[in-house]
Amino acid sequence: MTHARGERAALCDLLDRLGPDAPTLCAGWTTYDLAAHLVLRERRPDAMGGIALKPLAGYTASVQNGLKAKHPYPELVGMVRKPGGVYGLLPFLDEAVNALELFVHHEDVRRAQPSWEPRELSPDLDRLIWKRVSSGARLMLRRSPVGVVLHRLGGGVALGGPRQGARVEVTGTASELLMFCFGRQEHARVELAGDPSAVSRLREAHLGM
């Protein structure tokens, strides 16, 4: 089983268990909203633009709400469980594009619940996450107001943010650094070191893809 398939199955099991009204780390979204978002990503390419582009966000939101109106929650979760669109036809593309996306959204649900704890990841998944974090740090941290030095516990360093000015050192496991870089700073178990003002600005920055 690929990492994307494993995260997909675990996320859907959790969604089924929690039901449609549980909170997530995605601002304003319940588990029902997140399920609709994931279906939209894979099955409604015409509406994907609004995920990243604000001028198109209204259309994307309307399509997402339409999916909720059309499909009961268990049905949407069932649609997430099976890769849709091109990802259903090309498993290698599902792994390349969705492994980290599904990991982050799985954690969005897990970490919004009481008493969550970090998962013990397989070495292979840990390596994959760090490979993507280290290669994508510049992109994920492009909106950082300060320079960022990512230190992976166990080895590895990556840089992001402005090349000049204040810098903040962020230390954690690969998965925690991923959550931090994806804009989940408040819920990432990392250690930050640097000028207090710079640390505060980084914590409040809008990071991610």
UniProtKB/TrEMBL annotation:
InterPro entries: CHP03085, DinB/YfiT-like, Maleyloyr_isom. This is TIGR03085 family protein. It comes from the Bacteria.
